[in-house]
Specification:
By secondary structure, this protein is an alpha+beta fold. It has ten helices and 14 strands. The protein has three domains: 92 residues, Zinc finger, CHC2-typedomain (DNA Primase, Chain A); 80 residues, no CATH class; 121 residues, Dna Topoisomerase Vi A Subunit, Chain: A, domain 2 (3-Layer(aba) Sandwich), CATH 3.40.1360. A hairpin with a 5-residue loop joins strand 8 and strand 9. Helix 1 packs parallel to helix 2.
Length: 327
């Protein structure tokens, strides 16, 4: 006889761990650990780029870095099958109830302890070198911009997890600091699998805003500084990453402050998807693409600052003229 006492009628009653385990075909139970698998949305993904992790609120979420998709368990199913939220929830409920009927009452909802992670606990500064100069000037970023945005070279940094300590030393290590001296990110451009280590959430370029009329939101601090190096009359900021959307209250503050906000992320699939998500959530912004290299800083490296400025200024001017025509 089938056990029906654990049948559910609301998607919130389905354990999110079960949703991920079932729809991602995981070979291990989720009990607080983070795991990485090959993208479910990108068949060409050769190395695992999709992370299933415990968010700060203690709920499992996913982030697929090859496509930019991410969210909670229902969003996973919604994106997998191109359903709306209601249809995705319905499929989850039906699939879970079928599982319950054939597995002695289903899976109990259990609380789990989030696995500990390595955290940056110390760092050591060093002086600037000719290697640093060569690296940053390729993107038209000089010492004044680096100093203004509190970028400092690091000799090393150490991370700890439980009783384990891991210390990293290298030539190309940089600390991103707030004005008060707080380290919020480490940038290691020569490390392919882990270029950034975030220590705190921070809107990059926020403390350097100059109350200009227009604002560009771009992908990274390097892009912020590269765009500023072109001497275009606008403010520039970047969220923690291209995959981190600025919160509603922040966007409303910016909306009241600037006559036009333009989002310009990388011109790859992930960047375009992220811009579309911004436009869907904040219809008052404009999105635009620089059709050169992947991002503004790489475009400067590949084509030179003069050529990028000559291409970018008309693109931005068109967006600003559209504002006047629509007003």
């Amino acid at each position: 006889m089938f056990n029906t006492k654990n049948l559910v009628h609301d998607v919130t009653d389905v354990p999110e761990t079960w949703i991920f385990e079932n729809f991602c075909n995981l070979t291990e139970k989720l009990s607080g650990q983070d795991i990485k698998i090959k993208s479910l949305f990108n068949p060409n993904d050769k190395t695992p780029s999709m992370c299933i992790y415990v968010a700060k609120n203690g709920v499992y979420k996913f982030k697929d870095f090859s496509t930019g998709k991410g969210g909670d368990a229902v969003t996973l199913v919604k994106e997998l099958f191109q359903f709306n939220y209601h249809k995705a929830s319905q499929i989850i409920i039906e699939t879970y109830n079928d599982y319950v009927l054939h597995n002695n009452g289903g899976q109990d909802i259990q609380k789990f302890k989030q696995s500990s992670k390595y955290k940056v606990t110390s760092y050591k500064l060093r002086g600037w070198s000719t290697q640093d100069q060569y690296f940053w000037t390729k993107f038209n970023i000089g010492s004044k911009l680096l100093e203004a945005h509190n970028v400092k070279p690091l000799e090393s940094y150490c991370m700890t997890k439980d009783d384990n300590e891991l210390c990293i030393t290298g030539l190309y290590l940089y600390g991103y600091f707030k004005a008060d001296g707080t380290l919020y990110k480490i940038y290691q451009p020569k490390t392919l699998d882990k270029k950034f280590i975030k220590t705190e959430s921070y809107i990059q370029g926020w403390e350097q805003l100059q109350n200009r009329k227009h604002l560009v939101i771009t992908s990274s601090l390097k892009d912020v500084m590269s765009i500023k190096s072109l001497k275009i009359d606008l403010d520039v900021i970047a969220p923690d990453s291209e995959n981190t959307m600025l919160k509603h209250d922040v966007m409303e503050e910016l909306r009241n402050k600037y006559s036009k906000i333009i989002v310009m992320f990388d011109n790859d699939n992930a960047g375009i998807k992220a811009m579309q998500d911004y436009k869907e959530r904040y219809p008052f912004i404009e999105i635009t693409i620089l059709p050169m290299s992947k991002d503004p800083s790489d475009s400067i490296k590949d084509y030179g600052a003069v050529e990028v400025r000559n291409r970018l200024v008309p693109i931005l001017a068109k967006k600003l003229n559209d504002e006047k025509e629509n007003s």
